[in-house]
From TrEMBL:
Main localization, broad class: membrane
Cation/H+ exchanger transmembrane domain segment(s): 11-373
Cited PANTHER family: CNH1P (PTHR32507:SF8), NA(+)/H(+) ANTIPORTER 1 (PTHR32507)
Ranges of compositional bias, category Low complexity: 403-440
Biological source species: Mangrovihabitans endophyticus
Transmembrane segments: 44-68, 89-110, 116-135, 147-169, 181-201, 213-230, 236-254, 266-288, 294-314, 326-343, 355-377
Domain of life: Bacteria
Biased composition annotated in UniProt, kind: Basic residues: 393-402
Protein's recorded name: Peptidase
Pfam families: Na_H_Exchanger
Amino acid sequence: MLLLAFAAVLLLAVLISALAGRTILSTAVLFLGAGFLLGPQTTGVFDVTADTPIVSELAELALFAVLFTDGMRVGWADLRMAWRLPGRALGWGLPLTLAVTAVAAHYVVGLGWAESLLIGAILSPTDPVFASALVGNEKVPRRLRHLLNVESGVNDGLALPFVIIFLAAASSSEHLHLGELGLEIVLGLVIGIVVPVAAILLERSRLFSASPAYEPLNGLAIGLLVLALAKATHANLFLAAFAAGITVATFGPRQREAFEHFGENIAELFKLAALLVFGALISLRFLAEISWQGWVFAVLAIFLARPVALWVSFLRSGLDMREQAAAMWFGPKGFASVVYGLLVLESGITQADEIFHLVALTIVLSILLHSSTDVVVARAFDEESETPAWHGSLRRRLRRGRPPGAAGDTAPADTAPADTAPADTAPGGGTEAADGAVHADAAEPERR
């Protein structure tokens, strides 16, 4: 029944995808809602619980695919050429979001510091899919789209080590083996770097060459080999995936380009399937089990943590207030947080169930809020869509010193005013070439 449900919802998502691109509808919300309606505690169409094997297996594969494709979005050259604004969001915004969320969890909910820091790490990554109308709108300043793309593509992987460390710290002392943890991390990084480099060098040699038809499969083969080796050696799968994606982007731009669209489609399928399963774990009874302090925490995690963190991060950054407000608001909690929450649930730590309830509530609220406001905020950047045609014509006539209706003014009513500055012009007249020129649109997701 799970496969039948996924196939039916996927077909419906495809059929309404064009409409979703123009409205507040979101196909991600569709899968989450379908899982909620069909789950065991609602209608019971399919029986899925947190300890069902398919939940952990699907979440593992989906996060591996997402981190691999996320890593491919930015190579080291891209980061060097366009680092300033994304660097602020990642270097300052991510740890500050983690810290503010942890403080709220500790003082509002009453979690211990290790568990509070863990939930802060889980909820610090962002997902661009739930704000895709903003990221994919060309009327939105390029530097803002680039900032959100790079940040959301990188912060899943950057948050992962914090999740691993704080999860280990929250475990009882007999389960805390720092040596094994360090070995898993190092092995994951080594496999994620060595395998892609070796594969790319082999293809560049005289003995081997991929045909155009098989080029997209090169990235898939590299990803599968990294996954298999990481599982065989008990390395950290997710760090291996993220490192492999960055390595391919850095050393194999041709392989990256061939695999990019194909890989994103694969990751999207896994992500939507995992969201369907995640929705099945949520029910009215599940939400009723959360205390009022938990609801207050979820609201603070969405409306306070990221806005405060990015406000501090972007002080004297050159972003105007409208761009800064959009970046502060669009920190949707997405798929990585879902899987990190499931990892905690499977870990067996004392407060795993409470942490999962808080994470799940925050993610559900975030998906509903952010996916229903991205189109609205994106339109705020499109002055032409908000301004009547007659208004633009009247303003041009007045600026030329002619009264309305004067002869000789033949400019069409829908022509942009001559004094309109480019969308990505920085305050003060300069342009953000360094923060928007490289791959600003290369990885912009379609609205899902």
